[in-house]
Amino acid sequence: MAPPLFEIEALEVRATEGPKILHGVDLTIDAGEVHAIMGPNGSGKSTLATTLMGSPEYEVIGGLMRFRGDDITGWEADVRAKAGMFLAFQYPQEISGVSVRNFLRQAASARKGEDISAIDIYVGMQEWMERLDMDPSFMDRYLNEGFSGGEKKRNEILQLAILEPEFAVLDETDSGLDVDALKIVANGVREIRQTRPEMGVLLITHYQRLLTELQPDRVHILINGQIVESGGPELAMQLESDGYERFGL
């Protein structure tokens, strides 16, 4: 029997030389599943997302993480990315002097372990930029420089499509998007999942609206660094109407 795609076991994390933020998080995601983590500001959602990708800002002080059965707790971020993990950032960084096209060509070559030709990356980007309603001229602009919030988020989904990861963490990809941009981003994620049905996804969000579009298999509530409740999509709907009052907030 194949191991789960991704597992977190009793994970405890603190800011580097700072306070503990995550207090024994457990989570199992199988291939093809979509899980969502919801919680109020300061609950540890983004800490969890960046820890999964090996951010040096945080230190794992207990527990472990497994990807396809391998203990990746000590792996560097680039090793995780090459192995097939992906993080869409809540606040994508601008990189002056590096075009979107060159960035994706280098990243895709590293991910697949072979040199991707300029023609192949161009064709793939053209196809996905059309699906994401992105101006093709963006591929030759510097990465995220001068992009609107919505354009940055679409660019994250473009990266997700081109890099073809096995497991994707989307950290508040819906933050700051209007209704139309949200639908475009959600449609892009759906189309990627149709072409890669075995890809697992962890959505981190404040809002029901993204979950309405993507229909997660499981929803988890993270409060004060702990998962306090898990359930189906109906749990997100309950939060939308009742808030976090029953959790003492």
How are the secondary structure elements laid out?
Elements (H helix, E strand, L loop, with lengths): L5 E10 L4 E10 L4 E5 L6 H8 L5 E10 L2 E2 L5 H7 L1 E4 L6 E5 H13 L5 H14 L10 E2 L5 H15 L3 E5 L7 H17 L4 E6 L2 H7 L3 E6 L2 E6 L1 H10 L7
Q: How would you state the average pLDDT, rounded?
A: 91
Indicate the CATH class: Alpha Beta
CATH architecture: 3-Layer(aba) Sandwich
Number of helices: 8
Spatially, the strands of the biggest sheet line up as 6-9-10-3-11-12
What is the overall silhouette?
A: globular
Distance, first to last CA: 41 Å
Q: How many strands, what sense, and barrel or not for the largest sheet?
A: 6 strands, mixed
User: Into which percent range does the helicity of residues fall?
Assistant: 25-40%
User: What are the secondary-structure elements, in order, as H or E?
Assistant: EEEHEEHEEHHEHEHEHEEH
Proportion of residues in β-strands: 25-35%
Q: How large is the radius of gyration? A: 18 Å
The CATH superfamily bears the name: P-loop containing nucleotide triphosphate hydrolases
Runs in which pLDDT lies below 50 for 5 or more consecutive residues are none
The name of the CATH topology is Rossmann fold
Question: Which structural class do you get from the secondary structure elements?
Answer: alpha/beta
Please indicate the count of domains. 1
Keywords: ATP-binding, Nucleotide-binding
Domain ABC transporter: 6-249
GO molecular function, one term: ATP hydrolysis activity
InterPro entries: AAA+_ATPase, ABC_transporter-like_ATP-bd, ABC_transporter-like_CS, FeS-cluster_ATPase_SufC, P-loop_NTPase
